[in-house]
Write a structure and sequence with these properties.
Blueprint: H1 2-23, E1 27-35, E2 46-49, E3 55-57, E4 63-68, E5 73-77, E6 84-87, E7 94-98, H2 103-108, H3 111-127, H4 148-156, H5 158-182, H6 185-192, H7 196-206, H8 210-213, H9 218-237
Parallel strand pairs: 1-7
Antiparallel strand pairs: 1-4, 2-3, 2-5, 5-6
C-alpha cells in the first residue's frame, strides 16, 4: 500500500514538473486586424489578454504582438467597431476581421465620455499602487522627503509601465474623438451627399489632424468639409 502511495506521489510530481508547464507555456502571438469585408487594416485597436490583464495596441499596419498561453481569451476593442473575443488555441498567427459599429455609435462617442474613461483608468492604476502613471518626478530622489524606491518602481515596475501605455493610448483616442465631433459620416453625408465607398474614401483622404482641429468651432468643421469636397470633386474631374 505504501509502495503504491510513493508511486502515485512520484507520478503526480512528474506530471506537475514536466507536463503542466507544457500546457501553460507562454507563447508570443502575432496578429493582424482587418475591417471585415475589406483589405483595410485597423490601427490603434486595443487587444487585452483577459487572464493576465495585459494589453497592447495595433500598429499602423494593423499588427499586434501579445504574450499568452493556450486557452487564454483575447478581447479586441476599437472605437467605431464591434468588440471581438477570440480564444488562443495555438501559436499560429491570428488574422482577425472586425465588423464596423452603427453610425449612431460613432456619433454618440463624445469627448466627455473619453475623458471619463481616462479618469477611471487613472483611478484604477492608482488603486494598484502607481500614482505617477510611470513618469515619476525627480523630486522623489531627494534625500529630504523623497522616496527613491517609489521613483524606481514608477520607472521600471510593470503596473506603471502599463499605465504609461494606457495613458498614451487613451490620449490618442481622446484627440481622435474630438476630431470626430466635426468630421464624421453623418455630418459629411448631410453636407455633401456622399455615401458608401465614396464616403469612406473621403473620410480617409480628408480627415484633419488633431493639431488642425483642436480649436475648431462648428463653422470651422463645416468649412473644412466644404473646401475638402471641392478638392474631392475637382480630383474626380481631373484627367488621369
Amino acid at each position: 500500500m505504501r509502495t503504491f502511495q510513493y508511486f502515485f506521489s512520484g507520478l503526480l510530481l512528474f506530471l506537475v514538473v514536466n507536463v503542466v508547464p507544457i500546457f501553460a507555456q507562454e507563447i508570443k502571438l502575432t496578429g493582424v486586424l482587418f475591417e471585415n469585408g475589406t483589405k483595410v487594416r485597423i490601427a490603434l485597436a486595443e487587444i487585452t489578454n483577459k487572464r493576465s490583464g495585459y494589453s497592447v495596441g495595433s500598429n499602423d499596419l494593423g499588427l499586434f504582438y501579445m504574450k499568452a498561453v493556450v486557452g487564454d481569451t483575447l478581447l479586441i476593442t476599437k472605437r467605431g467597431f464591434v468588440d471581438m473575443q477570440v480564444a488562443v488555441t495555438s501559436a499560429k498567427d491570428l488574422i482577425l476581421r472586425l465588423n464596423r459599429g452603427n453610425l449612431l455609435d460613432e456619433v454618440t462617442i463624445t469627448r466627455q465620455s473619453k475623458k471619463q474613461a481616462l479618469n477611471d483608468m487613472e483611478k484604477d492604476f492608482k488603486a494598484k499602487g502607481t500614482f505617477y502613471a510611470g513618469k515619476p518626478p525627480l523630486a522623489l530622489l531627494s534625500p529630504f522627503g523623497g522616496s527613491p524606491l517609489t521613483f524606481f518602481y514608477e520607472l521600471f515596475g510593470k503596473t506603471p509601465r502599463d499605465a504609461r501605455r494606457f495613458r498614451k493610448y487613451h490620449a490618442t483616442e481622446l484627440e481622435q474623438s474630438h476630431v470626430d465631433e466635426f468630421f464624421n459620416k453623418t455630418i459629411i453625408n448631410k453636407n455633401t451627399g456622399l455615401e458608401g465607398k465614396a464616403l469612406d474614401d473621403f473620410l480617409i483622404s480628408y480627415r484633419p489632424d488633431y493639431e488642425i482641429a483642436k480649436n475648431w468651432t462648428s463653422y470651422d468643421g463645416l468649412k473644412w468639409i466644404a473646401d475638402s469636397y471641392k478638392k474631392y470633386t475637382g480630383n474626380l474631374k481631373s484627367p488621369l
